[in-house]
Design a protein that fits this description.
Elements: H1 15-50, H2 61-94, H3 100-139, H4 146-169, H5 179-203, H6 207-222, E1 223-224, H7 227-234, E2 243-244, H8 247-280, H9 284-287
Parallel strand pairs: 1-2
Length: about 290
């Protein structure tokens, strides 16, 4: 909810007053968010209770149609879950013993996909219920079911919290921080996000980097430029690389082989990704 109270900020305000106002505004913002969550939950319950009523069909036909579609989708996926297990049981009894693990893996993967689809379909159904409840509440102010009363109370609480926050921040121009500090805080937030992104990329290497590090480790533990050490290790005296190469060969291997491994891994990954997209993207079958 947007602020409606705003006056030019005073030039000199003690920082303690601004901090107190900011803390109070933060508390009111939390109350507003809590009330909005309760409002959305109440609208979902209202839409769920109104979804089977026939007297709303003419006024809220579009919202009711959406709820019906979402509910039918959830029911269809739930039925598919039951059929998937029955199909696995039938196939498990008919195939040879060596193939039965594949039947189990196929069933687990299939039901995992179905559960993911069901989770998304239920979220869409909740959104449709909330939209239906909101439309019904706006269309008919005489609804007296408990969910409607809860939705009205939550909306009123959110409006009160928004007005209280605006009233607290009004003497400071709608923001507790001075304009310069507010701009600095925004820039610091953007800088923190950029630093976190770079740190995450440096600390969590991708698959080509892991392949390069693995090949580098293999080269360091397999080859050496010391013939004496390689001879001792090949005789079982100590542990370490057993193959001796020249210093130039060792340096070339230590430099180029990790790069080649990372490049090969990156190439194979990109080709595999392109193949998967070409095979499974919607409309790919029509292009063949």
């Amino acid at each position: 909810m947007e602020s409606t109270l705003s006056v030019p900020p005073p030039k000199h305000v003690p920082i303690r007053e601004r901090v107190s106002a900011g803390i109070a505004a933060f508390r009111f913002s939390r109350q507003e968010r809590r009330a909005l969550r309760e409002h959305g939950f109440a609208l979902q319950k209202l839409g769920e209770s109104l979804g089977s009523r026939d007297d709303l069909a003419e006024r809220l036909s579009e919202s009711l149609h959406e709820v019906g579609e979402r509910r039918s989708k959830c029911d269809a996926i739930t039925s598919s879950l039951g059929r998937s297990l029955d199909d696995d049981r039938a196939d498990y009894a008919e195939v040879p013993a060596l193939v039965r693990p594949l039947v189990i893996l196929r069933g687990l993967a299939h039901r995992g996909v179905l559960r993911a689809r069901l989770y998304r379909a239920r979220k869409e159904l909740s959104v449709a219920w909330e939209r239906l409840g909101g439309d019904a509440l706006d269309d008919d102010s005489s609804l007296t079911v408990p969910a409607a009363e809860l939705a009205r109370a939550a909306r009123a609480a959110a409006l009160r919290a928004c007005e209280d926050r605006d009233r607290v921040l009004a003497p400071y121009g709608g923001a507790a921080l001075p304009p310069g500090m507010a701009r600095g805080a925004r820039e610091a937030r953007h800088l923190t996000k950029s630093v976190a992104k770079e740190v995450r990329g440096a600390l969590v290497p991708r698959l080509p980097a892991v392949a390069g590090m693995g090949v580098g480790w293999w080269v360091a533990n397999t080859f050496t430029d010391s013939s004496f050490s390689a001879t001792l290790h090949s005789l079982g005296l100590g542990s370490g690389p057993r193959y001796a190469v020249t210093t130039e060969q060792y340096q070339l291997m230590h430099f180029w082989m990790p790069i080649a491994a990372a490049a090969t891994c990156s190439y194979l990954g990109s080709r595999l990704g392109a193949l998967i997209r070409a095979r499974y993207q919607p409309g790919s079958a029509a292009k063949k």
